[in-house]
Amino acid sequence: MTPQIHVAQPSGFTLIEVLVSMTILSVASLAMGSMLVRSTRAAGATSSAAHQTAAMSGTVARLDVLPFDALVAGTTCVTITAVEFPHTQCTTINNVSPKVKLITVVITPSGNLLMQPVTTQFRRTISGNGNPLKTQ
Question: In whole angstroms, what separates CA 9 from the centre of its chain?
Answer without folding.
Answer: 61
